[in-house]
Amino acid sequence: MAQTKYLAVAAAEHFISVNLAAAGVPRSDATQVAYWMVQSDLVGADGHGIFRLPSYIKRIKAGGVNLTPTIRVEHEQGATALLHGDNALGHLVMARAVDLAIQKASAHSVCWIGSHYGNHAGAASVYVRKLAEAGFIGIYMAVGNANHMAPWGGIDLLLSTNPLAIAVPAGNRPIVLLDMATTVAAYGKVKLAAQQGESIPEGWMIDRLGNPITDPKRSAEGSLVPIGGYKGYGLALMIGLLAGALNNAAVGKGTVDFNAHHDAVTNTGQVMIAVDPKAFGDEQQFIERVIQLVDDLKNSKRLPGNDEIRIPGEGAAKKMAERLEQGIPISPELMQALNQCAQECGVTTLNL
């Protein structure tokens, strides 16, 4: 039985960038997108990193992405701005949003950057992590790139997984970082399970009669389940309004399934918020309060059978340290998909 192999981080970035460049992406952009894609892999968001390369290449070859975009500030007022992504690869739009957020938060202590006409940009956490590394609190919201959730009590797929990520700096401790879909599982995990021939747990998806779906290849027959029942549905709706409707981006019936329509403009809407802790008092004292709460939680009494209290972001920090040393896991199924992509692009295949 074929086993999972490991691809060094630098090699993963190189492989992604040469494939993107071969598909027509300018080399500097290909390098930047490769960096952000691998950042998703480093924190364990395997459904958002190198795994996505074949689907991105399909969109590029189908003409669904603008390879020579002019990413620009369309509206600007004080601490706010609306970025027009010009249908660029989503990672490029969000990289620009991060830079603009740092610039505006440095000047105004807080900022709200909206964007439209973007594309899928990988894991939400990688962008707020950059804000936290720069000393800011980071908040990210987005409209997902396909509707996989029905409204609570309904069956029509009118909402996406609409992710939310929040990062809070914690000094020399791991960044406290929440990255979550508004569904029990992100759709990328369903796609990953389908590729690897695995089942999905009950509670991830239901069919149109409300029965659980455990075969990921049947995902088109039903809906992802929102977290917390109607509360997750409500949260997905509100994120859709803030990242979609407010930005004049696609939401609801206007959302384009980028997995099914490779040549269509998705008009993806995203939000980046940055807050400077110094605006609320002494920054170091804030960090100390963060650490104190984390320590109180970590040292609190546990239920039987629980070996530790985990803090959001700890697992990602540990995973990043492991993968920087060990490399990114490449399953046999993923290796096959990546090498097929490489052959189609006319570049060297992986040989692990």
Give me the secondary-structure topology.
Elements: E1 5-7, H1 9-22, H2 27-42, H3 53-61, E2 72-77, E3 80-84, H4 90-108, E4 110-118, H5 125-133, E5 137-142, E6 164-168, E7 176-180, H6 187-195, E8 205-207, E9 212-213, E10 222-224, H7 230-245, E11 268-275, H8 283-298, H9 314-326, E12 328-330, H10 332-345
Parallel strand pairs: 3-4
Antiparallel strand pairs: 1-12, 2-3, 4-11, 5-6, 5-11, 6-7, 8-9, 8-10
List keywords for this structure.
3-stranded antiparallel sheet, 10 helices, 2 domains, 352 residues, alpha+beta, Hypothetical Oxidoreductase Yiak, Chain: A, domain 1, 7-stranded mixed sheet, Ribosomal Protein S8, Chain: A, domain 1
